[in-house]
Write a sequence for this structure.
């Protein structure tokens, strides 16, 4: 908990009338006032709207009506989630001046649950990156050590929770963008099953991989947030029609008799720091001591996840980002004719990493290369799904490190390929569409947080959270 309040504790107190949502909000705004200048977790603070929302929660409590499961809990929202009447930037210049006319479904569900949005958090432009340094608004700093990155792309959301600006935050995870920053900042981060949480109102990066998910200090808080945002939404055609698994269902059930596999290819992934691999193994040992049956398991195709991802994700991005043409959204840089306006707008509006991805993706999809690159990557994706399915015939959940290293210094990684290696352990779950979450598991010899990942089969959130909760309870004795 890092000495911070739990979301469930806040909600319980507000629901009982022991504390007002207004007073909870002012405490968090005061913390933001003290430290945000240094951390830069937010692109936009929404204090006025937050005060109005908190007052509405307090009025509901006063009238004796149900204020919702997250009553009065401050929440920070990644700035690629649309918010009606509040600018939404994706940390890109190209959306300059754009104000969405609607709320993302997750934003509406938060409000309906009584949560109070305090602001929109910084990210790598269009969620492309692993450090939040690719933001048009400058980097976010890691609250654990402000010389270091918070990870990315949801770095602002992870930092907001770690700094105590809000007990809960939402991020998006296309290749690791919730789990990697969660690991770097010492908080819990969850990527749900593809289709479990509506993507309506999420600014698209790679639509077949993107999922929205929670950040929190505790597994129970993350589960409560998951249970609020998950569920069918007619506005997202990829939203699953069945009822979502209940994340909070078995948090206290322990792991006795559960089968837990340690993924060999991920503990020995490219560039893996030995002490992080060792920590994942210790996590498995702790689960074994708690009654789980633990073994190593091979998911051979996981090794190719990174290569497949860096074809599929840019290919989808090149298509998704074609809509920023100087006509429909945000920035327009005038030119002699439409083509020149289009070129100038995109040249000035997009940052270097976004342009790199658009070029990579356009290349991968072009005639003559499609089969060799994009087609091949899709075949690898199928193999990854098959290998995971095979592993889940013998195991209930899998364990892996979240990241190969701990939070690096701001400015230290300039080579894109080195940056991409951060996602080697997180990407396979996105390609498979499976849920996975990062749980803080002590610190490394450099004093920085280490995250351990719990992976589960599609719609396996109940058992995933169950194991994560058991793991969390052993982290104190590290
Ligand atoms: N770091 C990965 C990338 O740059 C993943 C980003 C994400 O999950 N949004 O694409």
């Amino acid at each position: 908990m890092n000495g911070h309040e739990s979301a469930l504790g806040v909600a319980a107190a507000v629901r009982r009338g022991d504390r007002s949502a207004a007073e909870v909000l002012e405490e968090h705004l005061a913390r933001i006032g003290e430290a945000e200048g240094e951390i830069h977790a937010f692109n936009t603070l929404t204090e006025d709207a937050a005060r109005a929302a908190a007052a509405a929660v307090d009025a509901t409590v006063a009238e004796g009506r149900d204020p919702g499961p997250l009553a009065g809990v401050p929440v920070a929202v990644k700035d690629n989630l649309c918010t009606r009447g509040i600018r939404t930037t994706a940390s890109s210049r190209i959306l300059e001046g754009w104000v969405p006319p609607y709320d993302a479904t997750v934003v509406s569900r938060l409000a309906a649950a009584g949560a109070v949005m305090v602001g929109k958090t910084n990210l790598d432009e269009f969620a492309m990156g692993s450090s939040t340094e690719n933001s048009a608004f400058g980097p976010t700093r890691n609250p654990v050590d402000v010389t270091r990155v918070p990870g990315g792309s949801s770095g602002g959301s992870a930092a907001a929770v770690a700094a105590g600006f809000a007990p809960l935050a939402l991020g998006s995870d296309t290749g690791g963008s919730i789990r990697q920053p969660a690991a770097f900042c010492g908080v819990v981060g969850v990527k749900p099953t593809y289709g479990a949480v509506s993507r309506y109102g999420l600014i698209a990066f790679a639509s077949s991989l993107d999922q929205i998910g929670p950040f929190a200090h505790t597994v129970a808080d993350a589960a409560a947030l998951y249970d609020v945002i998950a569920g069918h939404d007619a506005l997202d055609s990829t939203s699953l029609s069945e009822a979502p698994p209940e994340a909070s269902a078995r948090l206290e059930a322990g792991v006795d008799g559960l089968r837990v596999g340690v993924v060999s290819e991920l503990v020995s992934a490219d560039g893996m720091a030995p002490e992080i691999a060792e920590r994942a193994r210790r996590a498995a040992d702790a689960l074994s001591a708690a009654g789980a049956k633990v073994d190593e398991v091979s998911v051979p195709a996981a090794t190719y996840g990174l290569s497949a991802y860096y074809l599929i994700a840019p290919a989808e991005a090149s298509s998704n980002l074609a809509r920023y043409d100087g006509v429909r959204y945000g920035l327009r840089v005038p030119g002699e004719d439409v083509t020149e306006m289009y070129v100038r707008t995109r040249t000035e509006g997009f940052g270097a990493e976004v342009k790199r991805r658009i070029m990579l993706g356009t290349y991968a999809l072009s005639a003559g290369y499609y089969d060799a690159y994009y087609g091949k990557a899709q075949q690898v994706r199928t193999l990854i799904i098959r290998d995971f399915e095979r592993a889940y015939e013998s195991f209930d959940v899998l364990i892996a490190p979240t990241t190969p290293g701990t939070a690096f210094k701001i400015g230290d990684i300039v080579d894109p390929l080195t940056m991409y290696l951060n996602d080697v352990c997180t990407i396979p779950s996105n390609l498979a569409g499976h849920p996975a979450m990062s749980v803080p598991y002590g610190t490394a010899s450099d004093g920085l947080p280490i995250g351990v990942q719990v992976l589960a089969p599609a719609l396996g959130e109940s058992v995933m959270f169950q194991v994560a909760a058991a793991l969390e309870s052993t982290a104190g004795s590290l």
Summary: The pocket of glutamine is lined by residues 127-130, 153, 173-177, 205, 313, 423 (CB under 6 Å). Residues 1 and 217 are 5 Å apart (CA to CA). Residues 7-229 form a domain with the Amidase signature (AS) enzymes fold (CATH 3.90.1300.10). The radius of gyration is 21 Å.
